[in-house]
Amino acid sequence: MPQSIAAIRYAEFGGPEVLSFESDSLADPGNGEIQIRHSAIGFNYIDIYHRKGVFGPKLSLPATPGIEGVGEVTAIGAGVAGFAVGDRVAYVGGPPGAYATHRNLPAARTLHLLDGLDDTLVAASLMKGLTAEYLTHRCVSLRPGDTVLLHAAAGGVGSFASQWLKALGVTVIGTVSTEEKAQYARARGCDHVVLYTRDDFRDEVRRLTDGKGVRVVYDSVGAETFERSLDCLQPRGTLVSFGESSGPVDPVNVSTLGAKGSLFLTRPSIAHYTADRREFETAADRLFAAIRDGLLTVDQPRCYPLSDAAEAHADVEARRTMGAVVLLP
């Protein structure tokens, strides 16, 4: 029997104003799917990319954004094992559609939630924490004593990554836009913080490393920082370009990487680091254990009602938020 729901929809690509809050109905879950009632929905920058239609294949319209959520199983489709109605679960990845009170999703993308973990905190940390996990543990092999540059160090991914990097014995240079964010980044593990609105981070990296450069740059900003990020690397260093909040990066002439020091460049996606179910579960276990054991501090997120998703999008794009954002149905 169809389930009555409320969801955010958009019928055209564009700014936050294209998002509308609508009533709808949801069919029973299909083969390999479960249906959940959301208790909290994670907000991620990829939601903005999807809304704009600028990241990967464009979604068929009308569409509902969102790839992360926490909730309770309310129905189970055919061919699903290991889940029962009433289970607390969390998910990340798979098809968009999280901005809704209820949704169907592949059981293969769903994780059982450990007792004692708060739903809102999990929604604030799963996507960002798993991104930080693969960036710091699997994307590049890091050693104690390495120095890295982390852009957007006070953001959702940045705050997790800086804590994990510090635990690995890595020196972290973070970039932020305000002094308030600088204080936050220092509290989350950054050894040095650069206000990119005041100082050229390339000059500061040279100063802080005595001209040697850093071994890795983690760049989620894109167009505004890419070229200067390359200049921050030491010979045979790696630029990890994992976002484009300022716009897409222009095509790169591969000979530039050689001229600047035999550099490495990667454009990773969490989809390829969690596609294998065992790898996905191992990464989630590492994240949940780090939160449970206090290795990672999860701040209370900034919460918006689901109906105010357009306001949340506008605030995040304008960099008026710090840390994670969660939508509450």
Automatic annotation (TrEMBL):
A Gene Ontology cellular-component term: cytosol
All residue ranges annotated as the Enoyl reductase (ER) domain in the record: 14-327
Lyase keyword on record: no
SMART domains reported in the protein's UniProt record: PKS_ER
Organism domain of life: Bacteria
Record-linked InterPro entries: ADH-like_C (IPR013149), ADH-like_N (IPR013154), ER (IPR020843), GroES-like_sf (IPR011032), NAD(P)-bd_dom_sf (IPR036291), QOR-like (IPR047618), Quin_OxRdtase/zeta-crystal_CS (IPR002364)
Gene Ontology molecular function terms on file: mRNA 3'-UTR AU-rich region binding; NADPH binding; quinone reductase (NADPH) activity; zinc ion binding
Name used for this protein in its record: NADPH2:quinone reductase
Keywords of this entry: NADP, Oxidoreductase
Keyword NADP on entry: yes
